[in-house]
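User: Before I run my own analysis I want an independent prediction to cross-check against. Here's the chain; please return only the structure tokens and, at the end, one sentence I can use as a sanity check.
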Amino acid sequence: MSGFTVGLTGGIGSGKTVASDWFSTQGIDIIDADVIARQVVNKGQPALLKIADTFGQQALQNDGTLNRAYLREIIFNDPNAKKQLEQITHPIIRNEIIQQLFQSHSPYNILVSPLLFETDQHQLTQRTLLIDTSKALQQQRASQRDQQSIEKIKLIISAQMSRQDKQQRADDIVLNTGAIEDLYHQLFLLHQRYLTFATR
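Assistant: Structure tokens:
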């Protein structure tokens, strides 16, 4: 088990995936909370059955898989529904994260989570890294990637923890506003530091 975990976070369109992919090429194990969040609501999983019990059969597609569009609509418009969903999924996601961290054997590992601070997943880490960028770049990148309108992306950004709050809470901040080589250079320097931290 790696004894040193870095929590990596950032808002939509900040470049979290580009950063975690780079660390992966350095042989660092990546535990991705988003991937786990999708897995725990797969067909037949206990979380999915609880979701159907709580939100009704409309929460399921005809083939028994999660009706993401329906659920997204409900939780976007109803804070209570969002809380109910989180009470079902967050403990299960957390347990799976802990299990994967325990199974990791790289010099240190990285927990990638867009909700690192909001869900207290940062408590599972020894250090936190924020991939940060300007709001304008966030909107542009996320809109192009997800084929969503700028207005929709603005709504998503406004629902997330503010950049300022994340900046205050993060141990390390990488500004991803320039060329990808610049991002990689900043990550390389941090990688060297994390290797040092991990061997202490």
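Sanity check: The beta strands are 5-9, 29-32, 109-112, 127-132, 172-175.
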